[in-house]
Amino acid sequence: MSASESSATSSVACQGHESSQAEPSIPQLETLISHLVAAKRSLSSINHVWRANEIVTSARSALEESVVVSARTGFLRRGLNNQLRLLYSVRAEVEEVSVRGRSEFAGVLRSLDAADARLRKTLNLLRETIVHASFRPEGEDAKSLHDFVDERGVEELNSAMKGAIDRTNDAQAELETSNCAFDDELQSIKEALGNYRTATKMASSRSSASSASSSASNASLPSLSSVPSMLHSLETHAQELANLLESLVRHFDLCVTAVKHTEGGGAAARSITGDMPTGMNVSGRGGPNIEEGINANLNAPLDPLSSSEYQEMVSVLIKDAAEAEDVVMEIQDRIGEMESTFENVLAQRDAFLSVYNATTSVFEHISSLASARLPGYIAQAHTFTRVWKDEHERIQGGLSDLSDLNTLYDGFLEAYDGLILEVARRRHVRHRVEKVLRDAKHKLDQLYEEDVNAREVFRVEQGDYLPSDIWPGIGREPMRIEFHRISGGTLNDARNQDADADTKPEADTSEIAIQPPNEIHGDGETIPTLPKSLVEEALARLKARNSHNA
What is the pTM of this model? Predict the structure, then answer.
């Protein structure tokens, strides 16, 4: 023993040795009875042996459960990492669709706003540009260039663009709502992962002191290496408890035998052992059937003993009685250590269960998301992509139409400035024509007067000598030239008539008609009279446009 081993062997090993010693004094019956009572009381340690057996059985079961749970947890964890990587990859792809769509939509809106601003600016210029009154009928209210523009096309185009923008905004809002719900799902998974990491960290700290300082994100699964050693320790303690209890049983048997062989001790032995507690039948590993041993000893007939044999038996009893209390204390110490070890085994098992439950919780979240809602989040991204593709093409077409309208209206402004310059050019040409006509009339008048005077001189000087019938034209006045203003047709008609111009007879008239250039001329053409400042402003605008385009 240890005390148990010395007690278990003393009753045999010491027989020969004790016989050589001088006979000690025989103890009184009361002393033997007190040893018997103490031995009976020590047998209550059988409850610890029973408890030890229960602990070993439960520890084995806990170890088996820990092994199974640890294997399942390891398998789930390997799958968990792959599932999480796939899940976050899907979320990143969906977010990329949203970010790219927002960026493209924002860029298109900027282009659309810029095109609309240019068109509005051009329309405002049309509103600000008042058509000069000389271009319009007398008495008509003032009009701007905008009055000659039909804005229904602009309104229809704006309506179409607004519809495309609204549909895109709706699709984008639905995608954002879907992505927010996706993020909520991921947040729930993160919380479950937090519980998983906490449980893993706590379990790892129980199994290895070195892992107690590791971060939750890097916490590894708890180790099973310490559990088998703890189970082996429990089994060793249980075996030792059985051996110790066996030594106490032998000591009790020895006390019973000694009391019965002492005069007057039979009745006392039966009285003391008559109320032995039930349930004493224990067969631990290597342990005796205590109840059968006790009953057999109590009921067995007494074998005769010599004085020396009796003396030797009493000596062994006295020695064992001194060590019995130490055996009981050792049993209590060992069962206490077993209880502590068993608590650690159960704590390890609970740690494995905690990690397993946390792992399955994460998997339940992922499984529920993947089977029920993840397809909807992916489908929403595809829906947004399809809607944006359609509306993007529609908006690009609208941008092209806005650009065309702006080009048309800007061309209208430029054409009006060109019209002003064309009117100025025509007035200049008309002035040149009128000058030519005035100069021609003046020269023709001079020639006419000279011719009239010459004819008159000839008539005075020679008329009396010439017979009147020699040439009928001798007394006629010179011819007179008359200019007729012919109304011009369209330019196309004028080009077609150029080929026939040489076949027409020349006009031979006697009158020249010249009218002021600011009036309606005989040819029906009206050339407006424009202020010089208006012409200069139009010329400056055209030069600015040409410079900008260059």
Answer: 0.59
